[in-house]
Write a structure and sequence with these properties.
The chain has about 90 residues and is of the alpha+beta class. The chain has one domain. The longest helix is centred in the C-terminal third of the chain and has 24 residues. The mean pLDDT is about 85.
C-alpha cells in the first residue's frame, strides 16, 4: 500500500545536488519510506521512536538519513496540523 510520493533535493559533499524520490509505504506492517535515487539505487528508511534508521544492507551516510528523516517529519507534521484545523 502506497501512501505518498515526494521529492527531496540532497546537497552532496562534492557540491553537487541529487533529487531523491521518497515513497511512503508499508513493509511487513511497518511504515517505511523508500528512497529512489536517479542512479537506480533504492534505500529504505524507518523510524523507531524519534530515531531514523535504514536497513542493514543500505549504506547511506547517517547525516543524510537524519536530514531526510527531518524533512519527512516536517511534512507529516504539516499534514497532521492541516487535518486538525479542518
Amino acid at each position: 500500500m502506497q501512501f505518498a510520493t515526494m521529492n527531496y533535493k540532497l546537497s552532496l559533499a562534492d557540491g553537487t545536488t541529487q533529487v531523491v524520490q521518497i515513497i511512503a509505504t508499508t513493509f511487513k506492517k511497518l511504515k517505511v519510506w523508500k528512497l529512489h535515487f536517479t542512479n537506480g539505487k533504492e534505500i529504505m528508511l524507518y523510524k523507531v521512536g524519534s530515531e531514523w534508521l535504514q536497513r542493514t544492507e543500505d549504506y547511506l551516510e547517517q547525516c543524510y538519513v537524519t536530514s531526510i528523516g527531518a524533512y519527512i517529519d516536517a511534512l507529516e507534521s504539516n499534514i497532521s496540523q492541516k487535518k486538525l484545523s479542518v
